[in-house]
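Good morning,

Both structures are done.
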Amino acid sequence: MHTLTGVYAMNALPEKERAEFERHLPHCPSCAQEVAELQATASALGVAVEAAPPAHLRAQVLAGMTATRQLPPQPAAPAAPVLALPTRNRVRTSVLAAAASVLIAVVVGVQGVQDRRELGALRQSAAGYSQVSELLSAPDAKLLNDAGSTGGSATVVMSPSRSKAVFLANGLPSLPSDRAYQLWVVGPGGPRSAGLLRDEPVVADHLADALAFALTVEPSGGSPAPTTTPVLAISVA
């Protein structure tokens, strides 16, 4: 019963198991506390950012469900014994990881994610999870997005009060090995580099005077100042 707190908090238990768990709950203070915490977290995530999804998103998600395998293939045999977390901790970790996956999927899905490999890379980024979760919990959190001039799109998850933003890109054209995408924070004094766009989201801070975010194509090691016309620009205002 102790392992069912997460799925119960998400209203995902079959009726019979739900009834059994509810009979158990009044007699288990630790389960009651964990359910309350998970339900509060789910409620906070649900209202962290209010944005009307595009009309095509529902059809896209439903179509994706039919083509996405829900369970991984069973391995022939384990290569070696694996140390496991205690059952309760393992279930709690799985629930939190699932919540992070939902966050990333919602943020990027608002634009219409087409490339599952890019979403997979985001799912592997613990830094991306924590930063996006942190910013979405801010009372002034906002989502800014725009399409690139050469293809692809990007979203900025930003909190002015925390002076921080996470830049997420999707579907940008591939570049030669000697070139890279570089993100710039544009302020009254001009652009300053926020870093190169690699496999993980780019985190930018010190944004008190930020007016826009711009993405340019630069040499693979980066440039001290933009050398090309931005392929994508997102205004903060």
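Second structure follows.
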Amino acid sequence: MKEQEQLLKGRLSIIQTAIQQLGKDGLPMKYNVTLKEISSRYVASLRKIIPTYNQEGLLWNQLMEETRGYRLQLAEPRMSLAVFHDEGYKEADVDVEIQISVIGPYQDTEHVRFKQVPEQLVTSTMIEGSYEQLGAANEVIAAWISGNQYEINGPMFNIYHVGPGTEPNPDLWVTELCYPVKKKS
């Protein structure tokens, strides 16, 4: 009973914070922030320092090239994502890890590692369209995290539900921004 009461109080606090934020911070309300669990998954992973964020495709090409003979069996739901290991935004030499969920096991290659990623609690929001919206969406998530007594608990990542690898038209891309979080003590 006490546990349910705490859960309801937490949900009420989140709703009250959202109501207070409406129109207060001048940020667009088109980004709906949610708190959710992302299940543990087995992934093919490639992590490198790349010149700039927009050259992430180099990593995807290398992953596909190094695993070509494996005939990777993709997991359902299919999850392709990029983890950004630097603290904050950088203009150059960015530390990026790409992951794609697979059904394994497989042997590591020269640069591709196969590993289990643990379950994560994240705040997330969806972006429909080009990546030009990333800045505003990140601001909305940051305000939500701060306003709901959470703190960041690991590097942020983007899940590419529809992206440049499958759809050439940026207007049709669907990207989910995720920040691992934990409740402040």
